[in-house]
Amino acid sequence: MRILLLGSGGREHAFAWKISQSPLCDELFIAPGNAGTSQHGRNVKLNPNDFKEIGSYCLFRKIEMVVVGPEDPLVRGIVDHFKNNANLQHIKVVGPSQEGAKLEGSKAYGKVFMAAQNIPTAAYKEFTPESLQEGLDYISMQTPPIVLKADGLAAGKGVVISPSIEEAKEELQQMLSGKFGAASEKVVIEQFLSGIEFSVFVLTDGKDYKVLPIAKDYKKIGEADTGLNTGGMGAISPPPFVDDEMMQKVDERIIQPTMIEIQSRGIDYKGFIFIGLISVDNEPYVIEYNCRMGDPETEVVLPRLKNDLVELLDSLFNGKLDDISIQLEPQTTATVMLVSGGYPEKYEKGKVMTGIESVENSIVFHAGTKNSEGNLVTNGGRVMALTSFGDDFKTAVAQSLENAEKVNFEGKYFRKDIGFDL
């Protein structure tokens, strides 16, 4: 099978690494990829959001499957583009339709979706610039901290937790005035839930589903979860506090009702559902849905998956998903993300990287990297993920941290406390 993988981050390197291990994969192309993905296939200079160009390339290369890594092409409707084009309909595209991608593309849509099946989530209200005053009045009646979420896609940075009513009001005005661009033309204000977060990943053909390894990520830039939100600074799998009893609750109260609502709405969904959860007094609540795999969670999930990933993805289209049993590596995995100095705000690219050849007993997943004039250089805010195995998460984290010290580039930063709260 000839496969095209869309995306350029650590998640996509992990996908490329796993897909290339499958005997079912004859040739792998990654668009646009990074310096690491080129180890497992051919990088192609294509924009994942240029569907016409992607479609033409698929026909030129006789691509049989497209795996969509990031959320943007899904929210923009890449699955529908292929489905509605007679020349492209034969190509299997892993991901939901544009309607299914609204689960991530609109926080308000996700809330309405959950309400239809009484899926446990935080109470909320939504506001637009026209209802700003109502929003300010609503905030005045809340008890801090107050959660404000940009309705649309904001690269993982559109959630703000304000510690006071005054700050929440200021934040609402900034968001509705364009702080996150079009993403915050509508803002969801919701109840703050106190607990510990974790991530559940579901692979589904729209009817049957399989639960992949669960994970917990760390989004704040600073240690002890302080500072600004990022796309993710590290992750572990599985989180030790998520036991069989909790997963039974998640399955019965969240995953099964989610699948029922997908079917009741007639949504074409052949791909991943990432359910961001929080355990409140040992009861699971949904924080948000995503319509793809997480990053850096993919870097700890896929290494624990023993199954042939291509066989799993192909089963979404041949009706055989229900026949497959998920096989897991019993060891814990942990990943530590190396980021550019200044991230998640202003940072410089093009910093020469050294020391990667010294990394031992960890898997190196490139994120923001590229090859330039014979050197490996930084090319993004999140630069590289180092994933390790261990008998427990502390052992795995320690191994990744040991190797994080060996990789060098100007401005390098990483959190040394991944798993600190477990």
Characterization of the model:
With 422 residues, the chain is an alpha+beta fold. The chain has 4 domains: 2-97, Rossmann fold (3-Layer(aba) Sandwich), CATH 3.40.50; 125-190, ATP-grasp fold, A domain (Dna Ligase, domain 1), CATH 3.30.1490; 196-323, D-amino Acid Aminotransferase, Chain A, domain 1 (2-Layer Sandwich), CATH 3.30.470.20; 332-404, Phosphoribosylglycinamide synthetase, C-terminal domain (Glycinamide Ribonucleotide Synthetase, Chain A, domain 4, Alpha-Beta Complex), CATH 3.90.600. 28% of the residues lie in helices and 28% in strands. The chain has 12 helices and 20 strands. Strands 1, 2, 3, 4, 5, 10, 11, 14 and 15 form a 9-stranded mixed beta sheet that branches. Strands 12-13-16-20-17 form a 5-stranded antiparallel beta sheet. The chain has a 4-stranded antiparallel beta sheet with strand order 6-9-7-8, sandwiched between helices. Strand 7 (146-150) and strand 8 (159-162) form a beta hairpin. The mean pLDDT is 96.
